[in-house]
Amino acid sequence: MVGQPEIFDWPATLSPTDISIRAPSKTVGLTTSVNESVQAVPSIRPPFRMTLEFETLFGPEVLAWRAMIASLEGRANRLRIPLFDMWFAARDRQIAAGLAPHSDGTGFSDGALYATSDVEGVTVTGVQGQRTITADFSGYAGADLDALLQAGLYFGLHDQPYIATAVAWADSVATIRCSPTLRIDYVDQPLRLRPVMIAGLTDDEGGELTLKRGRWGGPTLELVERFDGPLP
Fold first, then answer.
1. Tens of pLDDT, residues 8-43
2. How far is 61 from 201, CA to CA, in rounded Å?
3. Is the pTM of this model over 0.85?
4. Which of 186, 191, 197, 209 is paired with 57 by a 20 to 30 Å CA distance?
């Protein structure tokens, strides 16, 4: 019996200098007719892919890199990695427009509330294969909603990233067309504007780090989205 892979969090000390995030783009049924017309349809929910390039790792960064790659054990284990992209989500000041109270619903004595690191109270319900979803941002009615979520931004449901390809607002309710289609059924699943992805190496030899003069190096890492279990 094959054991479940372990999932490790991305080391906070490692920040790439160059990033390429490739949204699902695989097609199937590619055919060419006699008049050279091409017919193809998207593959069912293919994975995201990422390329991360690092300019110079030195000292503690080298050790963090080594520990991370060793923990992956080739393609056996996985990383929970944030989508490193300056355009990946709304800025902190926009997200903080929805402030949170204490667990009992009260604020501080002066009426202040906690600033949140991600949106709260925004949920999504949908079925596998659904392309368009809705989300109610009523708790953020005073914010610039277009800045919170717009076409081209990533968002997350659980540990699975999506990209918004179109967003239409009706008051505080967003109708979102997403890619890929929903991977699984969701019921009141919290929506994230700080998405993460469960990813693994594309091959067992990935993550090689060559140290110049035995001290520093600039590796490149190729990752592909992995899933906790087989998708229906």
1. 999 988 989 898 999 887 676 666 665 666 666 666
2. 19
3. no
4. 197
